[in-house]
Write a structure and sequence with these properties.
Radius of gyration of chain A: 26 Å
Number of domains of chain B: 2
Helix content of chain A: 10-25%
Number of domains of chain A: 2
Strand order of the largest sheet of chain A: 5-6-7-8-9-10-11-14-15-16-17-20-21-22-23
CATH class of the largest domain in chain A: Mainly Beta
CATH superfamily of the largest domain in chain A: membrane protein fhac: a member of the omp85/tpsb transporter family
Number of strands of chain B: 11
Number of helices of chain B: 5
Strand content of chain A: over 45%
Shape of chain B: flat
Helix content of chain B: 10-25%
CATH architecture of the largest domain in chain A: Beta Barrel
Largest sheet of chain A: 15 strands, antiparallel
Oligomer: heterodimer
Number of strands of chain A: 23
Order of helices and strands of chain B: HEEHEEEEHEEHEEEH
CATH topology of the largest domain in chain A: Porin
Shape of chain A: elongated
Chain lengths: 460, 210
Amino acid sequence: MSTILTLILLLTSPAEGPVNRLPQLTVEAIQVDGLEKTSCEMVARIIGIRPGALLTPDDPRLEAARLQLLALGIFHHVEFQLKKGRRRGNVILIVRVEERQTLIIRHLFFGASRIIPFWLGLGLQEGNFLGKGMRLSVAAVGTARSDIMEGRPQYAVESSLFAPKWLPIPLHLGARYANGTEFYRTYGEADDGDPENFLSLDYQRGGFWTETFLPLGRLFLHVGLSSELLHTTLPGERIRHFPDGTSRQIHFGLQDGFSALGFLSGRLSWDTRDRENLPSSGTLLELGGRIGSPVFFSSYSYTRGELQIEHYRRLGRHIFSLHFFGGMMMGDPALFDKFYIGDLQDLVAPRALGLNLSVSPSPNFLDTGISEARWGTAAFKLSFRYDYPLFSRSGFIYRGHLFFSAGVMGLATPAQLRFRETSLRDALPVDLTLDFGLHLDTKMGIFRLSFANALSRMPF
Amino acid sequence: MTALRVLVLLAIVLLPVSPAGAQTPARLLRLERGRLSVNFSLGTLPSPAFERKMRSGLTQRLIYRVLLKENPGDRSVAVALRYCAVTFDLWEESWNVECSGRGQTQQVTVARYSQLLRHVATLSDFSFPEKVNLSAQRRYWVEVQVQLNPISRKLLEKVKLWLRQSEKGSQFSGYMGSVLSLFVDKSVGGSDLTVTLRSGSISGREVLTP
């Protein structure tokens, strides 16, 4: 537990109740019961009371220690008790804990698209790595060979470690590697997803990242740093042929050969939701930004800003929520750092560990210029969502919500609008997005069985 | 030691607390000189886990939230709070019980567990702080919520928020393609024990009749 959280707990621990004349006791020894995987030294360090220390039966340090242990997330239950020591006034502090199951499946990736016959992946998380309360996550995804000329399989792996107590501040450390392919249209209409209309660009990228967070009053500030090395081989053919006979150079958004992807990021978060999964009330507000610069070992100089707002309200059994995302970039970001259509449009397959799995365009319900947009430097999404709790009970599946969401999204680059060949209204890259289905909250996690989820994973 | 026990016995008899030896009046609600008081046994509160807590040697805090409700409407017409701190002396093998309510604090030491329960698992002549207007045409009942070692809501929210930040992990990881989103329910409880008890109902006419 971080020093910062320790201070919060000690300074705000409720000193409820009247003052009483309780005896001062001397801790003769500390006994920890119930540990199977967790290191006893780590528990003793968190408790912060050593043999020889003086305490009273209502000592606030004990309650603070109990919360710190619970906040590790590796114990179901933590209880303190005193036992008589060898002499009157001496006590043995007994700490009883019950450990949680800490190895869990974090993510499942699967699906198929016109350009990739199938992909499969898994993410695992060990919540009590080495018994030291650290969280180790590993994820990997692989695809079949792309159904495109010179296509090849893709794969990506990521690993991260969360260490709450190495330093006075909590620390995330991560590493990733990807051997992937990006697809660029060379022929056909913007809404034609035939793989023959695309060329592939192979790349390899790998690197490290780190992030920490700290409370600022009622907010939390996340700060991170990322650094990757990228290698690409730009294809010989670099021309996009339009149906009207014109042609244009393809802007790949990546440098040929080796380049560096690096950035410094920051995010402020204000969260009053009643719970993180399937909330029914409260607000989430997040404001974030990134800077890519040679100072942070980046070959691409850019800035990126994002705003995310979610607001939930319950009326009887009905839960309504409003969701907004907006982002803008300036400069010359690498392709991977731009906003991607699958990140915004529910009906397009999102990326998996950064891998691009589909060339499907946005459905274009409004008949605008959105079909051309796959990557952009300006993006927004505004949606409304309705949840109806079907059931809440004990058991493996303990909560189920029917949901419906609908909204509007947009993705663009300024050049698209500046050099348009149609009216502004027709060129505006906006579209409707929608989804409906069932959210199941289980002991293994939340499963989203939805129309968009199924559609985006099928080879249409 | 014998003298001490005699003194304790005298204190129990003489001090104006919910007397351990006195009989609990039968009527749930009693109106006397404009003051409405409750007599209610919290019989389901004690359990093996509760007794283990009471014998832990650490100060156990109990907060009682007593609501007077009326029917029809299921409306709360009065609320009163009571706070008790119970500490077991490992060497004397007795409990020091300190209870506060209505601006008064009462302290007593008891030697037997059954005596402790009479103090903490019974509301005896427990009065509401404000004048309560009762109607003879309505029925009333008492709802008591007892929390053992509650954590302040603000503190609990701080810890839960911290847990959420650690789970947010990284904005660097492209997990959006996952079918499964796992939010482990790392429940950090609000109290060791929360019990809500409800009495039977009594008509307002019966309460208002002396």
